[in-house]
Amino acid sequence: MTHLVRILAGGKMKHSPLFPMAEQYRKRMHLWSLELQEVETFEKREPAKKEAWIILDERGKPCSSPQFKELLESVIVCQKIPTFLIGTYQGFPPDLMAKAFKILSFGSPTWPHLLARLMLLEQIYRAQQAILGHPYSL
Question: 102 has which bridge partners?
Fold first, then answer.
């Protein structure tokens, strides 16, 4: 059974030099159906009933690749849609942060939003490979 993984991301990647790399990760997804929505703002946004929002923010908790895989699996086992949010240049409003299931960080540096999206795709792909027992994994 294929499960849905959703990404809500600020910024537009289509004309970025990172776009071909991001598409390669998306094409390699076999375990999950990956849905990516580019958004202009997160204001007045609410999680859907089945979504577990996982916000990527520099103030979030660092997460190793094995921990990321476990988090992804735990959300799916609870029959929720793991929904990753990558902010715009404005960041996230505090009320939106309060609605998060988890707030994660890819480390203390501030990463460009498009690069954070590529890093997220790589971590989702790495988790998939770990679950499938592929040596690329963790």
Answer: 54
The candidate with the shortest Cα–Cα distance to 32, out of 52, 3, 70, is 3
Query: pLDDT for 32-46, tens place per residue?
Result: 999 999 998 888 889
State the Cα–Cα distance between residues 71 and 82, nearest whole angstrom: 9
The label of the residue with tokens 């299931």 reads: 101
| Predicted TM-score (pTM) above 0.90 | yes
- Here the tokens at position 19 are 């776009």
Contact (CB, 8 A) for 3 and 76: yes
The residue assigned the tokens 């971590």 is 123
| Cβ contact 47:75 at 8 Å | no
User: Which tokens sit at 78?
Assistant: 């609870």
Rounded CA separation 61/49 (Å): 24
Lookup: tokens for 55: 């916000």
From the CA atom positions of the chain, what is the Rg in Å? 14
* Residue whose tokens read 């501030």: 110
